[in-house]
């Protein structure tokens, strides 16, 4: 249901994605691991054109977008099918938790405000934040802010959710509640692509783990292969480093 073909991206002539091919099934949880600077964020960001890829094709459901000639409407359609969860939450500081979740529903999905509000409140209940609906991000803990960030992505009803190191910016005390929420999202057979350094979590949640190095997928397989019987030397060295 998601298919990535020959995805490439350079920044100022420096190649960051060197031809990524990846197929992801409906409901599959794919965890992406790898050294920093290796293109993991760029891969996720390219999937909804937060970074504009140079070449390749992206298919999500019935939509195929050719990176080299994507129209505005292609990009909008792709963004409707993907929800993004940022490392630093990226909430609007001047909007409440509820308004943060409503924002894309109103502006991107063009839903009536009343319907968007109802949806936001329902998602806030699901994320255990009903009583924080009218709180501004500054009044929330890091864990609560990231749960709003996840709720915002969930609310879109997107075909795939993209998580870019969702717990890396958190104080250790808040990591557990965010991972718990991600487990609950996963149980709803939501397709998820997750970049994380939480190896225990990766092992537990992933149907497939993808190891990237130098802008390429070096090895991919079930957690049992990647963590217990890694084949590639670079993957072995990486796992030793991250312990
Ligand atoms: P990762 O998420 O695996 O740590 P990134 O995808 O963030 O890696 O970055 C890969 C490489 O691309 C890095 O060398 C980074 O400096 C570079 N890069 C990422 N985004 C930009 C950008 N907007 N402009 C210039 N270089 C970038
Ligand atoms: Mg990154």
Automatic annotation (TrEMBL):
It holds the Pfam family ABC_tran. GO terms for molecular function: ATP binding. The keyword Membrane does not apply. The keyword Nucleotide-binding applies. Keywords: ATP-binding, Nucleotide-binding, Transport. It comes from the Bacteria. Residues 2-239 form the ABC transporter domain. SUPFAM superfamilies: P-loop containing nucleoside triphosphate hydrolases. Belongs to the ABC transporter superfamily. This is Amino acid ABC transporter ATP-binding protein. It comes from Leisingera aquaemixtae.
């Amino acid at each position: 249901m998601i298919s990535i073909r020959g995805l490439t991206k350079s920044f100022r002539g420096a190649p960051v994605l060197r031809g990524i091919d990846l197929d992801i099934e409906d409901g599959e949880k794919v965890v992406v691991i790898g050294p920093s600077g290796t293109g993991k964020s760029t891969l996720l960001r390219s999937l909804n054109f937060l970074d504009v890829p140079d070449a390749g094709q992206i298919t999500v459901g019935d939509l195929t977008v050719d990176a080299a000639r994507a129209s505005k409407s292609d990009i909008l359609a792709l963004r409707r099918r993907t929800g993004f969860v940022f490392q630093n939450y990226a909430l609007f500081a001047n909007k409440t938790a509820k308004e943060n979740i409503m924002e894309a529903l109103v502006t991107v999905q063009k839903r009536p405000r009343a319907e968007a509000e109802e949806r936001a409140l329902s998602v806030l209940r699901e994320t255990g934040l009903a009583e924080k609906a009218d709180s501004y991000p500054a009044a929330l803990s890091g864990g609560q802010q990231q749960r709003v960030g996840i709720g915002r992505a969930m609310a879109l009803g997107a075909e795939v959710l993209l998580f870019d190191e969702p717990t890396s910016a958190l104080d250790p005390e808040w990591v557990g509640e965010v991972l718990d929420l991600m487990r609950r999202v996963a149980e709803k057979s939501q397709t998820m692509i997750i970049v994380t350094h939480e190896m225990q979590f990766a092992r537990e949640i992933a149907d497939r783990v993808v190891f990237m190095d130098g802008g390429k997928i070096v090895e991919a397989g079930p957690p049992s292969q990647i963590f217990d019987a890694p084949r590639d030397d670079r993957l072995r060295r990486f796992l030793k480093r991250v312990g």
